[in-house]
Fold this protein.
Amino acid sequence: MTDHLRILVLTKRQYTNKDLINDHYGRIREIPLYLARKGHRVSGICLSFRQRQEGIHIDDGVHWKSVNAGVSIVPGLARFTRHTFQSLKTCDVLWACSDSLFGIIGYMLSRRVNKPLVFDLYDNFESFLLARFPVFKALYRHAVRQCDAVTEVSRPLVELVRSYGRSDGIHLIENAVDRKLFFAHDKVRCRSRFRLPQQARIIGTAGSLSKNRGIETLYKSFHMLALRHPDIHLALAGPRDAPIPAHPRIHDMGNLEYEQIPQFLSTLDVGIICNRKGAFGTYCFPQKAREMMACDVP
């Protein structure tokens, strides 16, 4: 191989409630961009489970090919696999990411053409739906053990991979925060923008407000605090799977655009992160904590 590699990225297009191409978001975009800026030739193939424009999308030097899965999924998945197989023949290394399915496909194809595979785990994929099926779980663990290298987002995830029986080729690559967006904004201006009371003590969070994250614990805790502290308010933003309790001092911002999150966090006196210990919560990267820290929110 030459010093500059031809790298192929294999992934789904939508992840963590964002679109890889439309939203220009996340590690699956940023790591290929970094490699391209280092002089490597990076291209990617992404499978969209939502109807999106197919074809080539160029993102600052990285060439992405988007393929729609379609309503029945199987024909789209077959086209996606064929495109990957053909592209892999002219590449030096395959970087598979975003879900257990793409690691499994990447492992099978890379072995057919004798190309090295790096499997990226940005979460514990065993907590995702597909890996809950025994056959996919077994194939996923086999791919993790047998691929040429694994990149993981968190230290607990590194230890989980070791528990599968893998001892080498394990590399920790944590997520980062975009400091052009996430910094301490003026609190007065931000509270005015979101129509939050200037003199109140505001606690809150931005992100998934779902039951499996333990969001109900936050609601109960706030109600207890509200009885004792009349100046405490709760501000929330993000997708939810249950209604937010009605209370005169609970402020629901709905779903904010990613660029609005730093300003919202800057309204808070104390940021709160909700997560339950389990297959997801134990191994996920504390992205929201890093974002709050970047905004100087305790």
Observations:
- The mean pLDDT is 95.
- The two ends are 48 Å apart (CA to CA).
- The domain at 187-294 is CATH 3.40.50.2000 (Rossmann fold).
